[in-house]
Automatic annotation (TrEMBL):
E.C. numbers: 2.6.1.-
One Pfam family it belongs to: Aminotran_1_2
This protein's record includes keyword Secreted: no
Protein name stated in the entry: Aminotransferase
Class of this enzyme: transferase
Matching InterPro entries: Aminotransferase_I/II_large (IPR004839), AspAT/PAT-like (IPR050596), NHTrfase_class1_PyrdxlP-BS (IPR004838), PyrdxlP-dep_Trfase (IPR015424), PyrdxlP-dep_Trfase_major (IPR015421), PyrdxlP-dep_Trfase_small (IPR015422)
MF terms (GO), sorted A to Z: pyridoxal phosphate binding; transaminase activity
Similarity comment: Belongs to the class-I pyridoxal-phosphate-dependent aminotransferase family.
Alphabetical list of CDD domains matching this protein: AAT_like
Amino acid sequence: MDLTKRFNKNLDKIEVSLIRQFDQSISDIPGMMKLTLGEPDFTTPEHVKAAAKKAIDANQSHYTGMSGLPELRQAAADFVEEKYHLHYKPEDEVLVTVGATEALSAALTAILEPGDSVLLPAPAYPGYEPIVNLVGAEIVEIDTTANDFVLTPEMLEEAIVEQGDRLKAVLLNYPTNPTGVTYSREQIKALADVLRKYDIFVVSDEVYSELTYHKEAHVSIAEYLPEQTILINGLSKSHAMTGWRIGFIFAPALLTAQLIKSHQYLVTAAATMAQFAAIEALTVGKNDTLIMKEEYIKRRDYIIEKMSALGFKIIKPDGAFYIFAKIPAGYEQDSFKFCQDFAREKAVAFIPGVAFGKYGQGYVRLSYAASMETISRAMERLKEFMENHAD
């Protein structure tokens, strides 16, 4: 008996990520410094932890409703209204999810069918495509490398027209993993002007929305396209709460009524004590991110200075906590091999750009969610490595 032949055939399209493959290939190197993590190196604020402890002591350990605690949905609605000028009714337009990842899974499995296509600006976070593939749909990438990783209205419209009736959704992520690129109000409005002409969903992953570094505040596309947008967000990046697994879906009531079906049968509900912590984060701690932002900006600017001096081309990121750097000419352009060689010689790990799709080849991604001491040592070792490998 071979039951492996009876799995969902779409699993054959899903492979172990190149990020994981790379990590395994260097895991035996002693003393490795990893600038790879996609999570803050800060700890969850003390007052947020205290709120969770209080909930545990009060025996708040039973199921909440499928949509989450009413108080948390209200806090989330208030937060996005104050920060991003968005208007959602907490009773039927906000879902509390198990992180942004489950929010994405619930949204994409609810809207996609076999044969559908989803447009995705690339390079992109590699976690989207497996979800899409699992339901028999297909990711179609839009190459943004020639435009400094910025999606233009012209690129978007051309891709939409080319896909035709197959197209079910456009998946946006900004500030973007891996590039750190984000969009101005004018750019978002221009993209929205294109999207509103078409009967398609806009799934917008804005989990890095609180980590923007230019003067203009983050602008959500939901402000311009509220009826089409399924907005994804969460507390992992903004409040250093990756392990708490609290995310959100914001969408019009008609869409939410359908989305809750997939959410319900994926997870039932998010952890109750984590939801009480999230209420604290979104109310008392609504500006907790500001302290982290100041430190991230220092780290970002330091890395850009050091790597630019070594010949790396870097589009200055205005959000998230990643540097996506082009390997200089004259060096190994296979990003997987470049990062392997660097890791083996200098015990420092970057993520190969190809892990973010074919349009990431020739780049490396490093996270500055690490201490300045670690970053400084890593930059010293990178300088030595580049000098040793120069033509």
